[in-house]
# Entry
Amino acid sequence: MAFLGTAVRKVASCRPALSPLCRSATTSRRYSSSSEPTTEKSVPYENVLKVEEGGSGPTKPLPKSAEAVVIGGGSLGCQTVYHLAKMGMTNVVLLERDRLTAGTTWHTAGLLWQLRPSDVEVELLAHTRQVISHDLEQETGLETGWIQNGGLFIASNKQRLDEYKRLMSVIENCPVTGIQVSTDDMGVKRVKAVETFHGTIQTPVVVNCAGVWAAKLGEMAGVKVPLVAMHHAYVVTERIEGIQNMPNVRDHDASVYLRLQGDALSVGGYEQNPVFWDKVSDKFAFSLFDLDWDVFMQHIEGAINRVPALEQTGIKSTVCGPESFTADHKPLMGEAPEVRGFFLGCGFNSAGMMLGGGCGRELAHWIIHGRPEKDMYGYDIRRFHHSLTDNNKWIRERSHESYAKNYSVVFPFDEPLASRNMRTDPFHKVLTEQGCVFQERHGWERPGWFNQDGAAPVLDYDWYGAYDISKNQNYKYNELLGKEYTFDYPPHHHVIKNECLSCRHGVSVFNMSYFGKFYLTGPDAKKAADWLFSADVNKIPGSTVYTCMLNKRGGSEADLTVSRLEAGAANLPLAPEANGDAYYLAIGGGVAEHNWNHIKTVLQDEGLNCQLTDYSEDMGMISIQGPKSREVLQEILDTDLSNEAFPFSTHKVCNAVGHKVRAMRLSFVGELGWELHIPKDSCLPVYQAVMAAGAKHSIINAGYRAIDSLSIEKGYRHWHADLRPDDTPLEAGLAFTCKMKSTIPFLGRASLEKQKAEGLRRRIVCFTIDEKVPMFGLEAIFRNGVPVGHLRRSDYGFFIDKQIGYGYIRNPDGGVVNADFIKSGKFTLERMGVVYEAKPHLKSPFDPSNNRVKGIYPDNYHNVYKANAQ
# Structure
């Protein structure tokens, strides 16, 4: 007898049965080109083309053309075809190089959990559950093998318990040999056809659901697919007496899961030293690797700790197969930036079965309507900067860290350690020396906060000591991160407070160089600006406008500032050559790739003759904010900074201690202030001059942790937090960014007009609570004891000295959410099972009249501040 406790194994094969979804295909007779959600209709399953194993080709000829070709017959591929058909696409082909589920799906553990760290992921899992447990059996009459075991999440410490409280036509044996790509008259690459050994299919859409083979398939079309293949394993025990009613168990702290399998258990998990599969074989179908017990033993120890009987239980089989993993342990989805019509549905990090239903539906909607229904930015391939997606060091290191930390607690202020310092700005070295604790966004190192105890540089990745690599010793940066592993206020809360209040009462400098900096020029630039931007950006040259960019449904794809430029000769990088209209776009750096691709896609779809150029790496940007900012900058800029000469929302090129800069009077923190956009070689001299001029005003460096607090206090939105692609500007309190009073058409206008006429069914609301308890988002919102939404974003406002949260609420009766509905309700917020009274606000509780950004402060403001400080 082989026992788990001694790690002696008895090897046997294990091949789970295939579900009806992976054995069949569906077609639908309903089609809708509307951007609204499509009503799904089930019809009998038919037209399944099959090939016997070992056959020389498909039993039916390949079609000459298709509306879409899905490549890869695993969970996601089958779910995508299923949902495309249900949404009305009648000519869809699924190509599988071997047989359905032959790659990674067939050896899945088959678990479907319901707790995930975001509201969208919870909804995706819920749809998968609906499809597998109900829809398929209703439509086909076939059992899917769904077993309702229940689930048990085990918390071994307070932090883990706190985290749990917070979350509550098929053609086989037909390998693809090539993807044909054509270039249209505008120079845009588009999918043309799919080549196989058995023929070529003309199609405008290819969906890459090839799992661990997805990178190879991407290469055929010139598309970068940033994933790696690793061995992933579980073992199945012999029969265990009395275990039949046990729920599935997930013990994150032991990095192990236990799944009931009849009268036995499957045991698996995520280790810190996974085995990479560097040479992915095209011949690997329904195959397994030998299990490396030296790697797997750590899971055995955790399992025995939870179920002591396992120590004397035999092993019936081992399952070690390939899985694809990504840099942030999230799937790769959406249209590839390199080629129009090439969609990704891969890199599911062993969660393809769990997420397949929800992601398959969203991907189908993406293909048919151009965008998914839900906010899928966290899975969108465009979340990664193009400079990273073919960087093997970044892909390998980050994928390893994400794998190793898959079962780690997701803390609010955690940062990756792998592949850091990929993109740094000219201020990086000097800020590191001043104690900057950096955050990583989009490959950039941006300031998080400033440690008062000296430098804490980010070191090279040590792989957590795996693979015989020595761990970094006395790693100060990692130690500082570890101290913030809490769901309470972090130990550096007072440091963030000081950075915030220095900005509110004096002056602070923020390095925002990671921002995306684009120029929009060309003959159709004005036409493009009118269509792309919800606000009227065609003011006089020298004006700067805060605006949104929308999708067809009126959802917010981005928020940014657009500055109208003077026509003239090039003065790069501060000004492009422009014979006509030209615009400078400043965009949050973490979403710059998403914005770039959204703009390019719209320009291509509309056939507009424009040039979009990226100068993000060529300029730095510092923002000097606070009541004393004018006094500091007036010493180094050669232009009048008075309200009359340099009003809010304007910009001009001027000299700063002998260096040309573009100064913009803007604020993301709600204070008097200017941004300086500076050519790379001039960054340090200008920064040093600012700090020297500000010394007598006690100027300090501040980071993005302070910006998060200051901006929520002022009521400014953060894209992808309290402003997402499924939120309209009307719902988000940003109606002022929409040129609705003009007759100028813009993308999404029709949807906004319809929504405005019907009244808002959901809208964002600001809440404050008197108790000093930390909140981070996802806390439930109750009105008169009835749940009406959850917080999207929360932080502490140090000036008003209250916890602040923003969330979207609905009327439980389905009615309009207006000011009376908000004012008449009694609101509470629930945090980890405890309910707190909350006060709703229709306007920001901080400076609702916007006096401070206009430079209007009480006459005795600075004297009062000095007295309080003393």
